[in-house]
Design goal:
Elements: H1 9-12, H2 19-32, H3 44-76, H4 92-97, H5 106-137, H6 141-146, H7 154-164, H8 173-180, E1 184-187, E2 195-198, H9 204-220, H10 226-236, H11 241-262
Antiparallel strand pairs: 1-2
Helix pairs in contact: 3-5, 3-7, 5-7, 7-9, 9-11, 10-11
């Protein structure tokens, strides 16, 4: 069994530490039914695809990081730019010309050119992984159906598919929402007041995917988009922008989850309809 380390704080935070002591504590937890297994895919192909999706997200983060370094380097010398200003190689000559012309600053130009090379390499790798990911995604029947959802692209559909792995691992939509980072955890002590907060023990990539999809829906704000219509109704009822956005994300997650379990295609008219869990 691969166990969730967050559930084993009794072991990790214990005073006396050695293998026999930890093994004894694990035995006690197992006997009491307190060990929580981490979900593992039983499909080798699914696991390989998941690694491909993970590498793509890592390359995206690398590209963003390289771009931020260039932005910071240029601003240090008084050149205010964003990543869009040097995404095309044809724009970079003008940026280099805006640097001070002192001969002592020649190492600065050399360093900047090397940073541009690192950025270009990250972009190249990201594009290659994206092509491979989409090629693989188009072979998965579920991803093709999920891609029809507003705000859901091939990348977002693939990420949802490989990291959820199976819809049956969640007992209800509340458990799904908490895993996605859009659910609330209730806590109280005795007869004191209750508090609600977003659970921090989440899958951050899935949170980025589902909230990103919600933001796309809200930004497009199409009249023929059932989720955008829901968002407008929530805003008109006085709900805060953050809560309205989270509700859109929850609605998207429920529809995607329901499509997975039922095998149905996306039906805009059914968005917002109550269904059994």
């Amino acid at each position: 069994m691969v166990c969730d380390p967050r559930k084993n704080a009794w072991i990790s935070k214990g005073g006396d530490k050695d293998d026999p002591i930890d093994a004894g504590k694990l035995t006690d937890l197992l006997a009491g039914g307190f060990l929580k297994a981490v979900h593992q895919s039983e499909d080798l192909g699914r696991e390989v695809f998941k690694q491909l999706v993970g590498r793509y997200h890592e390359r995206v983060a690398r590209r963003v990081s390289e771009g931020n370094k260039i932005v910071g380097w240029l601003r240090r010398w008084g050149v205010m730019v964003t990543a869009k200003d040097f995404a095309e190689k044809s724009l970079r000559g003008e940026l280099l010309g805006r640097l001070p012309g002192d001969r002592e600053l020649e190492p600065v130009r050399i360093g900047l050119e090397l940073m541009f090379g690192g950025y270009d390499q990250a972009v190249k790798q990201e594009k290659r992984l994206r092509r491979e990911l989409i090629k693989r995604a188009k072979k998965e029947e579920l991803i093709v159906r999920l891609e029809a959802l507003p705000g859901i692209s091939w990348i977002r559909a693939s990420t949802f598919f490989v990291y959820i792995d199976t819809p049956w691992r969640f007992e209800n939509k509340s458990a799904l929402w908490k895993y996605l980072g859009i659910g609330l955890t209730r806590s109280t002590s005795g007869s004191g007041p209750q508090s609600l907060r977003v659970d921090r023990k989440i899958n951050r990539r899935l949170k980025s995917v589902i909230l990103g999809a919600a933001k796309t829906v809200i930004r497009c704000n199409r009249d023929d988009d059932s989720f955008a219509v829901q968002h407008r109704k929530w805003k008109e009822s006085g709900l805060s922008p953050g809560n309205a956005r989270r509700n859109v994300a929850r609605s998207l997650a429920c529809v995607a989850w329901g499509m997975w379990k039922s095998g149905n295609v996306y039906e805009p008219a059914r968005v917002g309809m109550k269904s059994s869990e």
